[in-house]
Specification:
- It comes from Kribbella antibiotica.
- This is DUF2079 domain-containing protein.
- InterPro entries: STSV1_Orf64.
- Keywords: Membrane, Transmembrane, Transmembrane helix.
- The protein has about 450 residues and is of the alpha/beta class.
- It has two domains: about 325 residues, no CATH class; about 70 residues, no CATH class.
- It is built from 17 helices and seven strands.
- A five-stranded mixed beta sheet has the order 4-3-5-7-6. A two-stranded antiparallel sheet has the order 1-2.
- Strand 1 and strand 2 form a beta hairpin.
- It is globular, with a radius of gyration of 24 Å.
Length: about 450
C-alpha cells in the first residue's frame, strides 16, 4: 500500500507540457505591476507610512555594504552585526545601487521590481498551460494577492529576492528542467536562513523523478546543510549572544503554559485557510504545496503571535508557491474538465478566483488608510532637511527611514545622547535639556543638543 501511494505521488510529479504562447501578455502584466508597485511603495513612504522596523534597519544595512563594511544598524543595535540576527548576505547585491542613490527609496523600488518580476513566470506558466485568457486572469490575481500586498505595505525585507527565485525555479521544475530549477533556487540560501529548507523540499520533489533522483538528493542535502550551517554556525558567530536567538522565547521553543496546544489554535488554522483560499484550494492537488511546509513550520511552531497573523511580510514568499501549485493542480485536474466542461468550468474558476482575490485585496488595502496628514509630512520634510549629514539623531519610527541615508538614527525611546532629536512635540519620550536649541514646525519639534553626544559610527 505504501509503495502504491508513493508511486502515485511520483506520477503526480511528472513534468507538464505547455502549449505555445506569446510572452508579451506576461511581460506587459509584469511591467504594469512594476509601475503600480513602485508608485504604491513610494507614495506610502512619502506619506510617512514606512518605519524604522524594518525599512530603516535594512537601509542602514545596505548603506554599510555600499561602503565596504559588514551590515550594522543603530536602530536595531549599534553593537551587533546584522548577520548575527538573520543570514541575508544577498542584500549586498543592492549596495552598488544604494551607493548611487543613497536613500531608503532605493530599497523600496528594488523590492517593487523584484515582486513584479515574479509575476512574469507565473503568468507565462498559466498562459502556456491553461490558455492566454485564463493565464492573464491568474497573473492579475497573483499580482493583487493579499500576501504580496502585505509584503509591500510592511516596508522592505530580504524575502523580496526570494519571490522571483521561487517563481522561476518552480516553473522550470514543472517543465521538467530540474537543473535549471536548482540553479535558480540555489541563491535562496543567501536570502534567509530558513529558505535552505525550502530548497531542500524542492530537492525532494526533484528526487521523485527517477531521471533526476541524484540531483534531487544532493539538492535536498545541500539545502538542509545550508540552513543548519546558517543557524548553528554563521549566525552565532556574528551574534553578540553567540547563539541563534530565534530558537528562544518568541521563536521555536516550546509554547508557554498559556499557549499549550496552540499549534491548532483558531488563529493558526485561519492563517492556513487564508493562504490556500486565493487558489480556491486547488493548490492542494499539487505536490508543490509541500514547499509551504518549512515556512509554515517555523511560523506555526513559534510562540510569537506575530508569526500567526496575516498582516506582515511573512506570507509574501508563500504566494508564488500556492499560485504555481494551483496552476499545476488545474493541469492535473484536466481529465475532469475536457470538452464542454472545459468551456464552463475554467471560466467559472477564473471568475471565482477573481472575486476571492479582489475581496482579499480590498480588505487588505482599505485598513491601511492614507498615511500621515499632508501637513505632518510637509513639516517633517522641512525639519529633516535642516538636519546636517553625519550626525546622530533620535526620532520616531515613521520618521527614521527618512533620515537613515544622512545620519545615524536611534529610536527615541532608547534615550541615547544624540546630537539631534526630531519627534512630535507631545511625544511622552521627548526630553528637553536647558541648553537645547528648539525649532517647532506644526506638530513636530526639532532639538539640537550641544552637550556631549554620541559620535556617528561612520561618515556618509
Amino acid at each position: 500500500m505504501m509503495l502504491l501511494r508513493a508511486d502515485r505521488f511520483a506520477r503526480v510529479a511528472v513534468p507538464i507540457v505547455g502549449r505555445r504562447a506569446q510572452p508579451w501578455p506576461a511581460a506587459v502584466l509584469a511591467s504594469g505591476f512594476a509601475a503600480f508597485y513602485t508608485w504604491f511603495v513610494l507614495l506610502q513612504h512619502w506619506s510617512y507610512r514606512t518605519g524604522a522596523f524594518d525599512l530603516g534597519i535594512f537601509d542602514q544595512a545596505v548603506h554599510s555594504y555600499a561602503h565596504g563594511h559588514l551590515p550594522v544598524s543603530t536602530i536595531r543595535d549599534p553593537n551587533m552585526i546584522l548577520l548575527g540576527d538573520h543570514f541575508h548576505p544577498i542584500l549586498a547585491v543592492l549596495a552598488p545601487f544604494h551607493r548611487i542613490f543613497p536613500m531608503a527609496e532605493t530599497l523600496l523600488v528594488a523590492q517593487a521590481l523584484l515582486f513584479a518580476a515574479s509575476v512574469y513566470p507565473i503568468t507565462r506558466l498559466a498562459c502556456t498551460t491553461l490558455g492566454a485568457k485564463i493565464g492573464v486572469v491568474i497573473g492579475i490575481c497573483y499580482g493583487f494577492s493579499w500576501g504580496l500586498l502585505h509584503g509591500l505595505v510592511f516596508d522592505f525585507h530580504e524575502i523580496a529576492f526570494a519571490m522571483p527565485l521561487l517563481a522561476f525555479a518552480m516553473v522550470e521544475f514543472l517543465h521538467g528542467r530540474a537543473g535549471r530549477a536548482v540553479a535558480i533556487a540555489a541563491p535562496l540560501v543567501l536570502v534567509k536562513e530558513d529558505l535552505g529548507l525550502t530548497l531542500a523540499v524542492l530537492g525532494f520533489l526533484i528526487a521523485l523523478r527517477p531521471e533526476t533522483r541524484r540531483l534531487g538528493v544532493f539538492t535536498a542535502i545541500g539545502g538542509t546543510a545550508a540552513s543548519l550551517l546558517s543557524v548553528l554556525v554563521i549566525v552565532p558567530a556574528f551574534s553578540p549572544y553567540n547563539n541563534y536567538r530565534y530558537f528562544g522565547k518568541g521563536g521555536l521553543e516550546g509554547a508557554a503554559p498559556g499557549l499549550n496546544g496552540a499549534l491548532f489554535s483558531t488563529d493558526k488554522l485561519w492563517l492556513v485557510g487564508m493562504i490556500l483560499l486565493p487558489t480556491l484550494f486547488v493548490a492542494l492537488r499539487s505536490p508543490l504545496i509541500l514547499l509551504l511546509l518549512p515556512t509554515l513550520g517555523w511560523r506555526l511552531g513559534g510562540t510569537n503571535v506575530l508569526y500567526w497573523l496575516p498582516n506582515y511580510h511573512y506570507d509574501a514568499v508563500l504566494m508564488p508557491i500556492v499560485f504555481c501549485a494551483m496552476i499545476h493542480g488545474l493541469v492535473l485536474l484536466r481529465p475532469y474538465w475536457v470538452g464542454r466542461r472545459r468551456r464552463l468550468l475554467l471560466p467559472l474558476f477564473a471568475a471565482g478566483l477573481s472575486v476571492v482575490c479582489f475581496t482579499y485585496f480590498m480588505q487588505s488595502s482599505i485598513p491601511n488608510g492614507p498615511g500621515k496628514p499632508a501637513e505632518f509630512a510637509a513639516a517633517a520634510n522641512r525639519l529633516v532637511d535642516r538636519i546636517p549629514r553625519n550626525v546622530t539623531v533620535s526620532t520616531t519610527g515613521t520618521i527614521a527611514p527618512h533620515l537613515t541615508s544622512k545620519a545615524d538614527v536611534y529610536q527615541l525611546h532608547d534615550n541615547q545622547p544624540t546630537e539631534w532629536t526630531l519627534a512630535p512635540y507631545d511625544d511622552p519620550e521627548l526630553k528637553h535639556r536647558p541648553t537645547d536649541l528648539v525649532i517647532r514646525d506644526g506638530d513636530l519639534v526639532l532639538m539640537h543638543h550641544p552637550g556631549p553626544t554620541l559620535p556617528p559610527l561612520r561618515e556618509r
